[in-house]
Structures are given as structure tokens and as C-alpha cells.
Amino acid sequence: MADVDNAAETEKPDGATAQWRAFIQNSLRVRLDQGKFLQLAHELTARSPIPGLKLASFLLGSQTASSKIVDPRIPIFSEQLLEARIINTDDILAALFQQHSDRTDAQKNGSNHNGSELAAIILEHLTKGFVTSKSPYTIPETRQSLVVLARWLESIVTAASAGDALMQQLEHQAHPICDSLGLLATAMLENPRVVGVVAKVISKGMPVIC
Amino acid sequence: MFLLLFSIRSTAWLKYYPTEQREQLSHALTLFIPYWAQTSPQHAQNVTRLDDAQKQQSLVEDISKTGSDENALDVAAAVQVGAVLDLPLMHTRASLFLFLNSLVRHLFTLAVLS
Questions:
Q1: Hey, where are the domains in chain B?
Q2: Which of A117, A125, A186, B34 could form a disulfide with B50 if both were Cys (CB 3.0 to 4.6 A apart)?
Q3: Could you tell me the CA-to-CA distances from A154 to A85, B25, B26, B75, B113 in Å, in that order?
């Protein structure tokens, strides 16, 4: 607990990135309480703001360095950061997509990771957010989420149709992600806010100033 | 000058193109839905829901462009421009008239240019 407090309280010379990285690592290491984690995250956000995508990458990337079992604190922390609006849906989705691509590249070298299981859990949480209309909050968040979703869907089909023997071996690991992404896409396209964005925002022929 | 600089600076903000995003999303869904239906038969109901949502929001990929290109290629292949036969010269009154007409036109053009 003291380590986490120190990580959040002390100012380090290399800026917000190192502070947030230490905060995430120490929070997972000492299995910090959810309420305390959220309180310290708010304090650290006010003191050293960081882009949501970077924070989501820190949090989700800490799984690969740990054991073969998914740390249950990671999805809990991500859900808390999402509900507190410290990170957005598109940040988590983009970080997951990036790590999923990297994990596939890493598995070519024979390393063993359980990123698919973590991704499936996180995607399930995101799906619940869209089903219950907790997400999304803003139009840019919705738009970026749709961009990442489209790229991920396309990459899955492209990788499967490439006919690579390695991908055939990993097919049983790709199916949970495929199902999770399909459920997420269904939930997103049935979400009233996403439907509104699709109908009004991305239907115009002219570029939008953002 | 100010307007030029303003227009150049303002174009830096135009980084979002809705039509491209819509096409990208439509393309991804059009690819993914049949793949998902094939790989996960247990999710047939969800595949149907996603398919219905795609059609309700008109996120179906427009294949008219690719279709027109294919039609153009088919027409070009059917014409077979490179397979025109060389017919032998026929000495008729009409061919003589055409030959003299083209010859006179050619000589007249040379005379004008010189």
C-alpha cells in the first residue's frame, strides 16, 4: 500500500508516463483495493494527466509480463477507469487491438501468452457497456471505436484467409476473440447512440473538422 | 496571403472523412459476418442479429463500382481489339475514290505547311 501511495504521491523526473506505469504496476502487485485505486487514479489524473490510450496500454500490457493466469484486477481496474471517464471505450479497444496484433507476432517466436483470454474478458465488459447503454459517452469516442472495430474485424478475416499454417494452429485461440468481437459489433450496432452516430455523423460526404 | 495560410492551416484539422469510415466499416462487416457464421455455428442467432443491424443501417458494401469495372473488362475482352483481321485490298471504284481523296488531302496539307 505504501508503495502505491509513494508512486502516486512522489514526482519523478521522467514525467507522467513513469508515474502512471509505476502506479499500475504497484497497484497490481499489492492487489490494491478498488476504491483506493480509483481515488489514487483521480489524484494522479489531476496531477499528471496522460492520454487514455497510453494508460490503457500500460494496464493491459502488464498482463503479458505476469503469470499465465489472467490477473482479475486488470479487467476490474479497466472497468473502473472506464466508468470514471479516465479512459474511454476507444482507448481500451485500440490498446487491445494493438496488443492482440503484437501477441500474434510474439507467438510466432514461440512465447506463451494468455492475451486472448484477457481480451475476451475485456471485450465482454465493453459489450455489456454497450448493451446497457453505459457506453459510449461522446461522438468522437463512438467514431474511434467504430474505426478500431472495423480494422480488427477486417484483420481477423484477412489473417484467416491468408492460409498460413501458423494461423491454422492458432485458430482455436482466435475463435474466442472472433466471437467476442462479433458480440461487441452486434451490441454496438444495436446501441441507440452508435446508431445515431452511424446515421448522422459518418453518412456525410464532406470531411468533418475535428 | 493570410487567407492562403489560414486555408493551409485549416486543412490540418480535416483528418476525419466520414465516407471513408463508412466504407471501411461496411467492408469489414461484409467480410466478417460470413466468416463468423462459418466459424461459429453456435452463434447463428447473433450472426443474424448483426446481419440485420448491418442492413438496417445500410452498412452493406457497395459493389456497384467493382461490378462496373468487371463489366468494362468483360466488354473489352469480348471486343477483342487485337484480333482484327487484315483484309486484302479490293480494287473497286469506291476504293479508288477513297485513295484519291486521301492522297489529295495529304498533298494539300503538305502544300499548306510548306
A1: 16-63
A2: A186
A3: 28, 9, 10, 32, 63
Per DSSP, B1 falls in state -
Q: What percent of chain B has pLDDT over 90?
A: 23
Q: How far apart are CA A197 and CA B59, in angstroms?
A: 13
Average pLDDT of the residues of chain A: 81
CA closest to A152 among chain B residues: B28
CA distance B21 to B29: 12
For an interface test with B, which of A149, A202, A208, A209 has the most B Cβ atoms less than 10 Å from its Cβ? A202
In this prediction, residues B49-75 reach a mean pLDDT of: 71
User: Could you give the ipTM of this predicted complex?
Assistant: 0.79
Nearest CB to B53: which of A181, A189, A208? A189
Give the start-to-end residue ranges of the domains of chain A.
89-106+113-200
pTM here is: 0.71
Indicate the burial class of A167 (C-beta count within 10 angstroms; 0-12, 13-18, 19 or more): middle
Phi, psi torsion values for A208, nearest 5 degrees:
-105, 135
Within an 8 Å CB–CB cutoff, is residue A157 touching chain B? yes
What is the share, in percent, of chain A residues with pLDDT greater than 70?
75
Distance from CA of A186 to the nearest CA of B (A): 5
**A186 CB near a chain B CB, below 8 Å?**
yes
- Please spell the DSSP secondary structure of A164-203, one letter per residue: -HHHHHTHHHHHHHHHHHHHHHHHHHHSHHHHHHHHHTTT
Measured distance CA(A31)–CA(A20) in Å, rounded: 16
Through-space distance between the first and last CA atoms of chain B, rounded to whole angstroms: 50
Record: contact B43-A143, CB cut-off 8 A: no
Length of chain B measured in residues:
114
